[in-house]
Amino acid sequence: MKNLVSEFKEFINRGNVIDMAVGIIIGGAFTAIVTSLTDNIINPFIKLITGGNGTDVAGLTIPVPGTENGIDFGAFISAIINFLIVAWVVFMMVKAFNKMKDGGKKHLKRNKNGEELVEQPPICPFCLEEVNVGATRCSHCAAELPAPAEVTYKPAE
C-alpha cells in the first residue's frame, strides 16, 4: 500500500499532469466564452441575415410533426462555428508554445537544392581555431584576419 501511495505521489507531481489539469480548466472556461460569443453575437447575426424573428432562425429550422424543435440547422451551424473558434485558438496557443520552446534553437537553412545547411563557426585561416563572429584578429595566434570573421554554411552530411 505504501508503494502504491508513493507511485501515486510521483505520478501526480509530474509537470505534465499538472499542466494537463490546468489546460482542462482553462479550456472549460474558454469554451464558456466561445459559447457565449456564438449564442449572443453570432447567432443573432445569423438570424438577422436569414430574417428570423428572434425566437428561431427562419429558413434554417425544419419543423418535424410531433417534436418540439424539429431539425435545427442554426444550432448545428453554431456548433461548427464554436468548434472552429476553439480549434483556432488552440492552434495559435500550440504554435506560440512551440515557438517559445524552440526560442533558443537556430532555424535550419536550406540551399537552392533543398539540402539542409549546417552553420559553421568562423575559423582562423592560420591556426585553424574557432574565432568570434566579427573578429578582425585571432584570439589564439594573434594573426590579423583578412576580413571580419563570418559564419558560413555547408551542406549537412
Automatic annotation (TrEMBL):
Protein's UniProt name: Large-conductance mechanosensitive channel
Organism: Adlercreutzia shanghongiae
Task of the protein: Channel that opens in response to stretch forces in the membrane lipid bilayer. May participate in the regulation of osmotic pressure changes within the cell.
InterPro entries: Mechanosensitive_channel_CS, MS_channel, MSC/AndL, MscL_channel
Matches recorded under PROSITE patterns: MSCL
Family from the record: Belongs to the MscL family.
Keyword Transmembrane: yes
Mode of membrane association: Multi-pass membrane protein
UniProt keyword list: Cell membrane, Ion channel, Ion transport, Membrane, Transmembrane, Transmembrane helix, Transport
Subcellular location: Cell membrane
Quaternary context: Homopentamer.
Pfam families with a match to the protein in the record: MscL
Membrane-traversing stretches: 20-38, 73-97
